[in-house]
Amino acid sequence: MSNTLFYDLNLADLTELLAGWGQPAYRAKQIWQGVYKNFWASAEEFSTLPKPLREKMTAELTFEPLTPSLRLDSSDGQTRKTLFRLADGKQVEAVLMRYDKRRTLCISTQVGCAMGCTFCATGQMGFFRHLSSGEIVAQVMHYARLLHAEGQAVTNVVVMGMGEPFHNYDNTLAAIDRLNDPDGYHFGARRFTISTSGLIPAIERFTREKRQVNLAVSLHAAEDSLREGMMPVNKRYPVRELIRACREYVHATGRRITFEWALIHGVNDTPEEARKLAALLRGMLCHVNAIPLNPTTGYQGQATTRERAEAFRQTLEENGIPCTIRMRRGIDIQAGCGQLASRAGETNPDLTTLPTTREL
Question: Global pTM?
Fold first, then answer.
């Protein structure tokens, strides 16, 4: 019988578990705060707890489901990528990026990805499985402990690593809720950003829930003919329907939405494409986050030049759409957007099809 992963539990679950062990409710909060506020990662660190309880915790709870199997630091020392081995031998990557005073994490929600975006290393892997909510939480806590030891703290979390977060909606949002818990880690909802390739039923659900978490949509093309060749998800959820769902999100929540755009030389980086995008987004409270394409071995497209990126940005701005050209980070260690992939040499015998509305 395998141990229960501590990070899969919320406080109510932990309280119920401890009650079954004959422990009072206040013990649950002691343990909860020991993990999320003191960053303890083993039962032995809970020195204030009775020894029999610590032994019970060791026997029945797992506090560290991630085993770092490879760490890579960028040449400028500002980005660290960690390859984590999971309990079943699968692997995922997560990244820490240092920007002046910000410490941003990029975390994963799946082993691989079913979306199959042609320019993304994770999409080129195929899909293996969802991460549990606890496996998602554990990535944040790993880096939170590391930064805490340096007298620093996580400032932002982007859910843009391996996987499509909205394909694993329940576990992803449960993880965010757990990290947001004021009795625990208490990481503000507005410091999270979830990125989706455009799963409309999940965007509509997210809209109904009116969360404070930021939403980003990977768009990359303003017309179906171009986007379908880059992002197979567009065949199910075409551009116009996606933008409709995005407008409804902004209208219902009053929150700005971000559109991500990988600038690919000669494909989607021209002023003409910028004008098409501006026409598509006109009147919406939004922002375009453009970044020159990060290289992957499975895609032959090239990154745009600095001059073409600036012309793209300027065209959008002239047409009333705010745009930022994002700094590329960690390219030398394959830690940039679209570059995360397991290096385990696994093969995928059965690629999962796109999720249906029911699965979302």
Answer: 0.90
Distance CA(27)–CA(18), nearest Å, equals 8
Decide: residue 210, CB within 10 A, 0-12 exposed, 13-18 middle, 19+ buried: exposed
* Same domain as 213, residue 327: yes
DSSP 321-336: --EEEPPP--GGGT-S
Range of the domain at 98: 67-333
Amino acid at 101: K
For residue range 141-195, what is the model confidence (pLDDT) as tens digits? 999 999 999 999 999 999 999 999 999 999 999 999 999 999 999 999 999 999 9
End-to-end alpha carbon distance in the chain:
30
On whether both 56 and 109 belong to a single domain, the answer is: no
Task: Say whether both 308 and 223 belong to one domain.
Answer: yes
Q: Are residues 35 and 130 in the same domain?
A: no
Instruction: Give me the CATH number covering residue 36.
Output: 1.10.150.530
Distance from C-alpha of 274 to C-alpha of 256, rounded to nearest angstrom:
19
- The residues, any chain, with a CB within 8 Å of residue 236's CB and separated by 6 or more, are 354
| Same domain as 74, residue 58 | no
Return the active site residues.
93, 337
Tokens 């199910």, residue located: 236
41 and 6 Cβ atoms separated by less than 8 Å: no
Segment 242-282, tens digit of pLDDT: 999 999 999 999 999 999 999 999 999 999 999 999 999 99
